[in-house]
Specification:
Strand order of the largest sheet: 2-3-4-7-8-9-10-11-12-13-14-15-16-17-18-19
Mean pLDDT: 92
Number of strands: 19
Helix content: under 10%
Low-confidence stretches: 1-18
Largest sheet: 16 strands, antiparallel, barrel
Length: 408
């Protein structure tokens, strides 16, 4: 009888540990999670009681954007994530770091991307360009513990991601063959690198509720250090796993002075649905995101929509597409302010649409690495008034070599 009870306890403990480990395995950046069915290429090792995992990818790209405000550049976008986890005190403790060499592989602090805005380079607003990620994208520790069918967790990170927005674009399966950032990035998932993040969450069946405190300012131009700052911003997120293949999230956050050139606060509300389905001949992943931002400095609300899809076919072929619609208020420089003006600073807002299609072919595949070549083309729809600045048919082309750890 005692042995039977002991065996039952061990089985239950193992089940809880497995459930906790599954939650950790599904996490992308911070505590955001892809659908349970989404592929996650990685390398894994067992070292004593520790489970070690390594993810990562690098794109070696050449971008050619049209018009007087476009440009050409050869550069690399990349990241690498390493994690270690083990059972502890009836739960699972995990340590994770994510690093990027983009401060070295993206010359002059940006790469060309028409209609992209946000952050600065050499003290000026980035317009029609995307900034590199910081060297330290994440340094975090997390502890998960189950109580019956409920799991609670605490996440702490000098550099990490608060509970705000969908899975960030570098880690979304639906975006994994489009290396450039969405033009709605700063309305949807730009907080994926934040400082002094503390998140608490609870998972009860298909429902996850979590809240975060963090430092609201976005990274500065020194991409090699850890900025830090007091916790002055907050966010809350609800996630519903409808099926293994479908995830829905809704989140809201208050960000204190996120942009260096814009004082005051912003509020951000996001909603997204992600779908990932294994197929007999490959896999299909799709994400639809809406971001809604209010800026105190302008007393304006801005909207962004992103829909992207990825179809992997016959092991080596990937077809991808992205559609976006984004309100842009920074396409022309405005004064750098230190305090919020009263009345609010007026600013012109333009609705930009973009249409991207791409293809990747995997040249080499092994258990530890997948290497492919690909390209994508983007066409933009712009208001008539902008055609004098961008041309009648603004467009962009990116060709790339992609190396990814693991096998998709």
């Amino acid at each position: 009888m005692k042995r039977a009870v002991f065996a039952a306890i061990l089985t239950l403990a193992a089940s809880h540990a497995m459930g906790q480990s599954n939650i950790f395995m599904e996490q992308a950046g911070g505590t955001s999670r892809n659908p349970e069915s989404a592929p996650m290429p990685m390398m894994m090792w067992q070292h004593g009681s520790w489970m070690l995992m390594l993810h990562g990818q690098a794109f070696f790209e050449h971008a050619d954007d049209s018009g007087a405000r476009g440009g050409q550049k050869t550069f690399s976008t990349n990241w690498m994530m390493a994690s270690a986890s083990r059972q502890l005190g009836g739960g699972v403790i995990a340590f994770r770091t994510m690093l990027s060499l983009e401060p070295a592989t993206i010359p002059n602090r940006s790469y060309p991307e028409l209609f992209q805005t946000g952050e600065t380079a050499y003290g000026k607003q980035l317009i029609d360009a995307q900034h590199p990620h910081d060297f330290f994208m994440e340094l975090a520790a997390e502890y998960l513990h189950s109580f019956g069918h409920t799991t609670m967790y605490i996440y702490a990170a000098p550099v990490g991601e608060p509970a705000l927005g969908p899975v960030a674009f570098p880690h979304r399966e639906s975006a994994s063959e489009i290396p450039q950032a969405p033009i709605a990035h700063h309305y949807e998932d730009s907080t994926h690198i934040a400082y002094d993040v503390v998140t608490g969450g609870i998972v009860a069946g298909p429902l996850t509720l979590e809240g975060s405190g963090f430092h609201g300012a976005e990274p500065d131009e020194n991409r090699w250090d850890i900025d830090g700052g007091r916790i002055d911003s907050w966010s809350a997120r609800a996630r519903l796993r409808l099926f293994r293949t479908v995830d829905v999230q809704v989140s809201h956050g208050w960000l204190t002075h996120p942009e260096a050139v814009e004082p005051g606060y912003q509020t951000r509300t996001t909603a997204s649905i992600s779908y990932s389905q294994p197929l007999l001949f490959g896999s299909w992943s799709t994400t639809i995101i809406r971001g809604h931002v209010y800026k105190e400095v302008h007393d304006r609300t801005l909207d962004g929509w992103t829909a992207e899809t990825l179809l992997r076919v016959l092991s080596r072929h990937s077809l991808t597409a992205r559609f976006e619609s984004a309100d842009k208020d920074e396409l022309f420089p405005h004064p750098v302010l230190t305090v919020v003006p009263r009345p609010a600073l007026p600013v012109r807002v333009f609705r930009i649409k973009s249409y991207t299609a791409g293809y990747t072919f995997d040249l080499l595949k092994s258990a530890r690495m997948t290497t492919g070549i690909g390209a994508n083309v983007t066409r933009y729809g712009v208001p008539t008034i902008l055609r004098g600045f961008y041309g009648s048919h603004p467009h962009a082309v990116i060709v790339f070599l992609r190396v990814r750890a693991g096998n998709t």
